[in-house]
Amino acid sequence: MSFSSPASLLEAEQQPDRPPILRVEPPGDAARWAAEHRAALRARVDEHGALLVRGLCLREPAEVGALFGGLAGEPMTEREAFAPRESLGDGLYSSTAWPANQPMCMHHELSYAREVPGLMLFACLRAPDGGGATGVADAEDVLAALPAALTERFEREGWLLTRSYNDEIGSSLAESFGTDDPAAVERYCRENAVDFTWQPDGSLRTRQLRSAVVRHPVTGRRCWFNQIAFLNEWTLDPEVREYLVDVYGEDGLPFNTRFGDGSPIGEDVVKLLNATYEQHTRREPWQDGDVLLVDNIRTAHSREAFTGERRVLAALAEPRRLADFCPTPEARQR
Questions:
Q1: SS3 of the chain
Q2: What's the rounded mean pLDDT across residues 286-290?
Q3: Torsion-angle region of residue 250: left (phi > 0), alpha (psi -120 to 50) or beta?
């Protein structure tokens, strides 16, 4: 059985508006290949922020799980999910449940959590008929491109995520916290700096203040790391937003974001954030068997709307507890 030589890992194609693409000859054992070349692959991710590997010919979830294990070791269990996923065992998940005709704009996975994945892994078992690419955007470049007055405010105040859990929209308590036991949910919230309030109907509302700009734990460089635009009401399809506000009220939306001082974020700000992301997006249409590795702190990712069946699996790995995950009182006073 032969494997690609380590030198070939330096030959990732780089073209404007596309992530680096590494083309490999199909190995007989993709998991073994990944384990043997783990250091070189991670070096390419560190260099570029993301890497698309093409030619592994993955077909089944078990193959994906084995390859991800060889690349990243022990996977993370997702907590505080904003939308349901199907768990496929051993830290492997389906893509987030999200309407195919609605894009998922740029975000960093679990940027509002106390413990965040340093690495995201995606594998395409079936490419859609059209659209559906997972785009990537460099968080350092996005930060530099945004207006200084805006980023300075977010860096000073942080951003506030509000959530209202119900049985109809978004993740349930059990899907988000791994349990629907109120005492266990409260314990998790206290341990992870999440303010919570139980409503008269038994539903839960939470608020958590998080940093919008963090330093990368390896490079020390400042990154625009948040989900301010993605989880904001103005990113929703207008008809969906109107329906949710009508049913749940402004304060009862399944999720929303605000400035760190609690004031609303205007539609103009959200449009600016999404437009800046788009200017820095690199994308490549999925092909069956592709694997995409993403530095989750340095690189945001998105999902285009699509047609046809799309099957992309995901895993979260390399958990990080960021020292600056929440703005300090000193920073908020600057």
A1: CCCCCHHHHHCCECCCCCCCEEECCCCCCHHHHHHHCHHHHHHHHHHHCEEEEECCCCCCHHHHHHHHHHHHCCECCCCCCCCCCCECCCCEEECCCCCCCCCEEEECCCCCCCCEEEEEEEEEEECCCEECCCCEEEHHHHHHHCCHHHHHHHHHHCEEEEEEECCCCCCCHHHHHCCCCHHHHHHHHHHCCCEEEECCCCCEEEEEEECCEEECCCCCCEEECCCCCCCCHHHCCHHHHHHHHHHHCHHHCCEEEEECCCCECCHHHHHHHHHHHHHCEECCCCCCCCEEEEECCCEEEEECCEECCCEEEEEEEEEECCCCCCCCHHHHHC
A2: 96
A3: alpha
Which pTM was predicted? Answer: 0.93
Length of the chain: 334
For the chain, percent of residues with pLDDT exceeding 90:
75
Residue 228's Cβ-side half-sphere holds a number of Cα atoms within 13 Å equal to 32
Domain architecture of the chain: domains with CATH: 6-137+284-320 (3.60.130.10), 141-275 (3.60.130.10)
Mean pLDDT of the chain: 91
In tens, the pLDDT along 61-76 reads: 999 999 999 999 889 9
Tell me: the pLDDT tens digits for 232-261? 999 988 888 898 889 888 888 999 999 999
Q: What is the pLDDT of residue 150?
A: 98
